[in-house]
Each structure stands twice: as C-alpha cells, then as structure tokens.
Amino acid sequence: MERISDIGATPYEPAPRGESLRKLRNGGRSSGLESLKFALSIVLDCLTFVVLVIPILVRYAVGLFVSPQKKKIAGQLALVTGGANGLGREICLQLAKEGCHIAVNDLDATNGAKTVDDLKKMGVKAKFFKADISNYDAVQGLRKEIESSLGPVDILVNNAGVLPLMSLREGKPEDIQKVLEINLLSHFWTIRTFIDGMIERRMGHIVAVASVASYLPQGRMISYVASKYGLRGMMEAFSDELYYEGLSDQIKTTITFPFFMPTRKELIDMLCKLKIIARVPIFAPEKMARRTVNGILCNSRQVFLPKIFGFGLKEYEFIPNDVKRLGRKLVFQSDIPRLMPLPSQFNMG
Ligand SMILES: NC(=O)c1ccc[n+]([C@@H]2O[C@H](COP(=O)([O-])OP(=O)(O)OC[C@H]3O[C@@H](n4cnc5c(N)ncnc54)[C@H](O)[C@@H]3O)[C@@H](O)[C@H]2O)c1
C-alpha cells in the first residue's frame, strides 16, 4: 500500500471485480476435480478445527473453577501513567505491595511526589517522572529518563485518562483531539516505546485501563466513548499480534473496564449535576486497583468489577435500542442533559 501520507498523490486504482475477481479467487482451478479437491480441503480444515478446539474448551472450563497460579512480580519495575492520583495512585500502591519498584508518571508533580513518598515508605524504589504521554517525543524522553535511573520497564500500566462529559458539537475541535490523544493515541506511543525492551528481555506485561464505556455507547460523551471503544479494539488486536509473533507466552496484556469510581472531584460533581449519584453503582478505586494487579498476577486478558459485568456488558450490544433506552430512563429518571454549551452558545450573556 502507498504511504499513508501519500494518499491522493497518485490516481486511485479500483480493485478487480466480476470475472477477473472470480479468476483470482479460483486460484487457477480449471477442472471440476480440482474444485472438488478444494472443497474437500475446506471440510478437512473444519474437522481439524473441531478436534483441536476440544482441549482448548476443556482448559477454559477447568479455568472457571480452578484459580490460576499467580506469577511473582517482586523486584520488577512498573511504569504507571497518571500514577499521581485516583486509580493510578492506587495501582502504584498495590503493585508496591507485591514488591514492584515504581516509576510514577503524571503531569501533576505535586501529588506525584506524595505518591512517591508513600511508595518509598513501603520499601520499594520509586521515582516521579513528569511527562505528557499524549506526546510521542515526550514518551521517548520518559523511557530514557526511567532507564537511566531505575532500569528497564517490565510492567507498563497505561492508566492516565481524561473523563470529559463532552460530545461531538461541544468544546473546541482541539479538545476532542486531546481526548483521543490522551485516552487512545498515548497507548500507541507508550507501547511502541517500551515493547522493544520487553521483546529483548522476553518478558513483560502491558495493562490498559479502559472503561465500561468501551461497551456502552452513551450519548453526551461521544469522544470519551470513541476513545475507550478504540482502546478495546486496539488491545485485543495487539494481544493477537503478540500471538502471531510467538511472544504471547512472554508478554502478556490485560485490559480493565472500571465503572464509576470516586477519584477526582469533578466526576462526583458531574454525577450530582446529573442527579444520578444515588442511582448508579460506585466502586472504590482501591478495589479496582487490587483487581487490576490481580489481573497482572493471573495473566487475565480482561478485568471487570464486578465480574458479572463481563457477561452483562458483552450481551448489551444485542439488546434492542428501545429496550436499552427504557432501562436507562429507569436508572437515570431522565435523559442525560447537555452539560457543556454548544460553540454557538459560548459568547452568550
Ligand atoms: N473514575 C471513574 O469513574 C472511571 C471510570 C471508568 C474508567 N476510568 C478510567 O480510569 C483511568 C483513571 O481515571 P481516574 O478516575 O483515576 O482519573 P483522575 O483524573 O483521577 O486521574 C488521572 C491522572 O492522569 C493524569 N494525566 C492526565 N493526562 C495525562 C497526560 N497526558 N500525561 C500524563 N498524565 C496525565 C492526571 O494528571 C491525573 O493525575 C482513566 O483512564 C479513566 O478513563 C475512570
């Protein structure tokens, strides 16, 4: 394919269709016998699949009842983005409990220093690194700084994120871009930056903090939903690619889907404004952090809190929209109001 930046520079070439496409798909099979052989090979592939899938299903069924053996991460270095506050800070503390050394990244240096002090009191090495993870060059600089003072990163926890109740027509175009840069693109930058070291050492674990919004396409927060849906797709595809490259036994991935947590004040203010503070479940960030670290120890691909959400959220997509909206109205008692002015309303008295 042409370089992405060159798109449109050369005339578009349409794909073959009709007879030429049929010939390509036929793979040069000219006789009936060759076509029959081809059909039989597909039947054989299906039978092979059925035979090979049985031990995999048995392993999964056993896994439902037997807890996996936990791996040891003591002495490993974890980088936690957005580690100064909220869920990130709790993840730092839980990782330190397991004996991990911690590189705390954030833009908030004041609370970053407090987190580092608390981590050091737990007897592990810890250092604060100020860097904007939505900027690729800043992430490259972050790697150099961490490696020269603490060593290579074994566990990367991509937690930093913003939670604006901002939709498509609200805010400025740069605001929407920033949400996607922080909540989605930053994961590309950090993984690209730290994966080579993990591949060299043939060990590593990459965690992405997504949200239940990765499954709930909620109006009034389109940019956030898009970033978290994108993150889910990205992490699933990335995990698949590690498998293709023969690295899935050495480098593990975990994606977490938290529900509401009382982290920053604006979030709780927003739930109050929406008048749903008493009507939605709210989970302690300490509990989500514990589940996240447990997910690392057990090499879990996905982490939900509570576990039952894992089933409910996946089935949600099959529910007809009218039923979903009726259910939401019962929970919220109204439609979600617009909390940010439209651009046309910015300068109004
Ligand atoms: N709080 C919730 O209810 C909730 C629910 C679902 C998912 N989440 C997700 O959990 C993660 C953590 O959320 P939280 O509630 O702890 O948020 P928070 O706002 O309390 O903390 C996020 C931290 O990330 C830092 N940060 C933001 N942008 C950054 C950047 N570009 N570079 C470096 N640091 C940056 C902030 O300074 C802050 O310290 C987010 O990804 C969020 O989307 C939160």
UniProtKB/TrEMBL annotation:
GO cellular component: lipid droplet; membrane
Region of interest: Disordered: 1-23
Keywords, comma-separated and alphabetical: Lipid metabolism, Membrane, NADP, Oxidoreductase, Transmembrane, Transmembrane helix
GO MF annotation list: all-trans-retinol dehydrogenase (NADP+) activity
One Pfam family here: adh_short
Compartments, record wording: Membrane
PANTHER family according to UniProt: FI23927P1-RELATED, PKSB
Keyword Oxidoreductase: yes
Top-level taxon: Eukaryota
Similarity comment text for this entry: Belongs to the short-chain dehydrogenases/reductases (SDR) family.
Membrane topology: Multi-pass membrane protein
Function noted in UniProt: Catalyzes the reduction of all-trans-retinal to all-trans-retinol in the presence of NADPH.
Segments passing through the bilayer: 38-62
Protein name as annotated: Short-chain dehydrogenase/reductase 3
